[in-house]
Amino acid sequence: MNSLLPNLSGVIEAGCDEAGRGCLAGPVFAAAVILPLDFSHPLLNDSKKLSHSKRMALVDDIKKYSLAWSVASVDAATIDKVNILKASIMAMHLSLDKLNTEFKHIIVDGNKFLPYKNINYTTVVKGDGKYLSIAAASILAKEFRDEYIINLHDEFPEYNWKKNKAYPTKEHRIAIEKYGITPHHRRSFRLTNDQLKLDF
């Protein structure tokens, strides 16, 4: 039996989470999910604890059984301009904008958020392992982001994004040192171990 809680506030609420905050390239993605008050699912959990195949099965169930869901992203250029924290919150606000069901409360994974349309919100550290709607949002955000990065792989195969998903692996950093950066890399991030001069 899943130990995640279905709801924090007792009213219709939207759970939010982001994916790709620590990556070296690509947008940061965020999702918002509104689940029925009595929703339960035996497999739904923090996306980091699930295999890709289980996440993909859950994506279908989330889309099918949620009252509303949405995914939004903020690109690398904006991340560089405003910083990754503000860009992550911006992506969450954009995902909330896209929901087509009214909600009275927001629960957000982590400890940072900015007010959204005078709607009460609660930040929950490790919320994706505590509340079903945040877990659902974490799965959508991760799978949509991973798909986006994998689709870029054929254009930039040197970085092996289909494997490392643009995270700061040793392989990714070495490729940046060898080939320089792409338009998708976040220039404000530390891209190489020695932060060598890069080819723009």
Reconstruct the topology from this structure.
Blueprint: E1 13-19, E2 28-34, H1 52-65, E3 68-74, H2 76-82, H3 84-97, E4 105-109, E5 120-124, H4 132-153, H5 161-164, H6 170-179
Parallel strand pairs: 1-4, 4-5
Antiparallel strand pairs: 1-2, 2-3
Helix pairs in contact: 1-4, 2-3
How is this structure best described in words?
The chain has a single domain, classed as Ribonuclease H-like superfamily/Ribonuclease H (Nucleotidyltransferase, domain 5). It has a 5-stranded mixed beta sheet, with helices on both faces. With 200 residues, it is α/β, with parallel strands linked by helices. Helix 1 crosses helix 4 and helix 2 packs across helix 3. It has helices at residues 52-65, 76-82, 84-97, 132-153, 161-164, 170-179, and strands spanning 13-19, 28-34, 68-74, 105-109, 120-124. Strand 1 and strand 2 form a beta hairpin.
Structural class: alpha/beta
CATH superfamily: Ribonuclease H-like superfamily/Ribonuclease H
Q: How many beta-strand elements?
A: 5
Biggest sheet, in brief?
5 strands, mixed
Instruction: Give the strand line-up of the largest sheet.
Output: 3-2-1-4-5
Brief account:
With 200 residues, the chain is an alpha/beta fold. It is 36% helix and 16% strand.
